[in-house]
TrEMBL record, chains A, B:
It comes from the Bacteria. Keywords: FAD, Flavoprotein, Oxidoreductase, Plasmid. The keyword Iron-sulfur does not apply. SUPFAM superfamilies: FAD-binding/transporter-associated domain-like, FAD-linked oxidases, C-terminal domain. It comes from Rhizorhabdus wittichii (strain DSM 6014 / CCUG 31198 / JCM 15750 / NBRC 105917 / EY 4224 / RW1). Residues 37-216 form the FAD-binding PCMH-type domain. InterPro entries: FAD-bd_oxidored_4_C, FAD-bd_PCMH, FAD-bd_PCMH-like_sf, FAD-bd_PCMH_sub1, FAD-bd_PCMH_sub2, FAD-linked_Oxase-like_C, FAD-oxidored/transferase_4, Oxid_FAD_bind_N. One of its GO terms (biological process) is respiratory electron transport chain. The lineage of its organism: Bacteria, Pseudomonadati, Pseudomonadota, Alphaproteobacteria, Sphingomonadales. GO terms for molecular function: FAD binding; oxidoreductase activity. Pfam families: FAD-oxidase_C, FAD_binding_4. This is FAD linked oxidase domain protein. PROSITE patterns: FAD_PCMH. The keyword Lyase does not apply. Belongs to the FAD-binding oxidoreductase/transferase type 4 family.
Amino acid sequence: MADIIELLRERLGEASVTLADEIESRHMSDWHVPAEPGTKPVALVRPRTPQEVSAVLAACTETRTPVVPQGGLTGLVGGATAIDGAVLLSLDRMREILELDATAGTITVEAGVPLQAIQEAADAVDLLYPLDIGSRGSCLIGGNVATNAGGNRVLRYGMTRDLVLGMEVVLADGTIVTTLNKMLKNNVGYDLKQFFIGSEGTLGVVTKVVLRLFPKPRSTATALCAFDDFDNVYAFLRRMRAGLADTMSSFEVMWPSFFEAALDKGNHRRPFAGQHAAYVLLEMMGTDPEQDGEHFEAVIGSAIEAGEVSDVVLAQSIGEADRFWAIRDMSGELDGALAPLVAFDISIETGRIAAFLDECERRCRERWSSARMYNFGHLADSNIHMFVTVEERPFPEHEIEQVIYECTQDWGGSISAEIGIGLLKRPYLAYSRSEAEIALMRRVKSALDPLNILNPTKVFEPLDIKLAAE
Amino acid sequence: MADIIELLRERLGEASVTLADEIESRHMSDWHVPAEPGTKPVALVRPRTPQEVSAVLAACTETRTPVVPQGGLTGLVGGATAIDGAVLLSLDRMREILELDATAGTITVEAGVPLQAIQEAADAVDLLYPLDIGSRGSCLIGGNVATNAGGNRVLRYGMTRDLVLGMEVVLADGTIVTTLNKMLKNNVGYDLKQFFIGSEGTLGVVTKVVLRLFPKPRSTATALCAFDDFDNVYAFLRRMRAGLADTMSSFEVMWPSFFEAALDKGNHRRPFAGQHAAYVLLEMMGTDPEQDGEHFEAVIGSAIEAGEVSDVVLAQSIGEADRFWAIRDMSGELDGALAPLVAFDISIETGRIAAFLDECERRCRERWSSARMYNFGHLADSNIHMFVTVEERPFPEHEIEQVIYECTQDWGGSISAEIGIGLLKRPYLAYSRSEAEIALMRRVKSALDPLNILNPTKVFEPLDIKLAAE
């Protein structure tokens, strides 16, 4: 223990090293997953340069000390949660925006820059950094990259992976690998940055990234649509894809139980007479303020003529669009209001989502007759969120997880569409990945981090890790 | 030798194994790079299933026999060119389209399906598979994935990497890893497919892929624009990005020497009076046939008002648009007509391309006063093509490569924007990648192919490979 702290102080200076007892509690866990009771990290370090990050990792390699990279600590699965005996490596002092190149459409930043600062820098030159998640003010870009963050605009702009052009990363042994590529096309050997995006701090520590910027949309049109038959939602989605193409920026589905609970708890005015089988919040972001609204109406009109949609309300103002979004955004409040519940972040291929939800409900009801599900999500992204609750007490949290993840496995879905594995979903990794896949991941982990010092215990079960390090 | 052939015959049946002397010459090289003189592969195998591919690789692992995966053999850098003593593993019998899911917007195919067959299958259900390259009728999708193919629509739809959702791949030891994911969002552990895309057959053999399909554009508008000052091209690009956003499908720049040679050799009518500093072929593909043309004209009109463009011709018909494209597509004929020359496929960040070309020309002229450059390319993609020719004989091919790649290195560019490294650019890998990057690539290569049987001698210099296999 003394050794690693001595090394860190020697290499970073005393001011950059906080000892175990003085570490603020906020560094012990992310937003959702606390550290295991009794966990005591050896130190928190806050390096200011890639060279200092390299020095920390080299010291940890020399002393075989585990390292937990930390960004804004806004994760939901414990990826950044403290580990006993580990060095907590916070990137939060590395917050410089290094360059914004409006012609290339790129911004180059240090890993500790908050997402919102990047959005604002782009906005100031009339460009868009499209990644957007609720924690935008607190999360740091390095964490977004390490977790391949998704969020509100994936349908149009993709996940974080699709937005990263270049990267500087520090390997477990302290080697700095710099590929600050700003070019869209670069087929020179392996695309190394892909290995680190979404690896949750288990393969390297990202210190800089080059991100793509986009033109800002010039127009927005919003509609709330009601359907009496779920199959029509799929027909409508295909029609909107054809008619709006890349300008379709949201296709959010709400199932009746979610929709009714949202109206009720939020005291929202009922936008439609009567009840329907499904509701879709549709949004288009275009480039032609003069014509886009008319085109949007025409494309929806063709769906009405075809009998796909039962009722439609077109937002006549920004205020009305905001009111539609307020219904969808009740998800945050319902999470509290309907507690206790288990929240899921599942991917299932788009065309089978409705049937999958029926099957989940059937399996839950079979076990708990009081089971209720509140479903909503990004249908076009293949991503569905579910709140599952039952009246039984004590609340059978893990049993509900078990039922839903087993169903996900049976249907070939993903147990984590966007929030990662971390500690929380680690026991379920094999529900969405085969033995061969996990063995290959483990092989890559061993190759890049042979001593298993980088965020050990995350993503893989400790048993797996031990095998990998043999 | 006898061993490997016995094993292959035993596992695949005699009909699937062609012995050295009977291998057709077309399997010895790709479109551009012949095998080294005296090269004699031990056999060509044409498996029909992933299990047979697995059997081949397991046999090669057992006997330490190198394997060269082959698709349509349309590469340009020797990635699929035969290696002495190797088994040539052709995927050309695995050509089944397994599923097309119009709701999810995906197609699942075997690796041996030609690109054009995928384009046609998508088209038949009113969808688009956007990857498009000249060899579409001959190239196979597995090769597209292994080389991360680019082509004509990267600006709007991305490289092959951006189009692959799922993959089945066979590792060097014969392990089949299947991840036929159809979902846009899936953050369960490492995204393994990323490791194999663009790895040129050195890390695994792709046997199946799941690809994204897109709605077909409903309108096309085309213009040819002339500029008297290159800086205005950048201003124009920014304006078009803002005004057309994702509907901008091409932004092809031609420099005067290329433009004049194309008009001359192709007997094309001169579209503008006089000569200009640069020409841009601009294309928009939209979703609203009624309004898109008007919007396109309005956006270009604003550039004319701002004084950015010197002259514009809007295509009034498909025929006229085709004539504009015919000028740009003279690149193929000029390659022959201006021979001998060296053709380059370089990426440089967009805003520095013009200055980079000036510097290349200066360095070439310094050495060969007769040097001439013909430049054209995908400016918005950061990708530029150059034909360089000199009057000196014997034609100093490698010296010209040396000058241009050194300049690329000095400017932090990429020596291969889209066609890969293979054999041809192997000596120049370090011009675009640092020692740390190459060491990391090598580490991954060693982890996934510890015996170095997968396409050895490709991408890395043999010396590097030996180090990696130690």
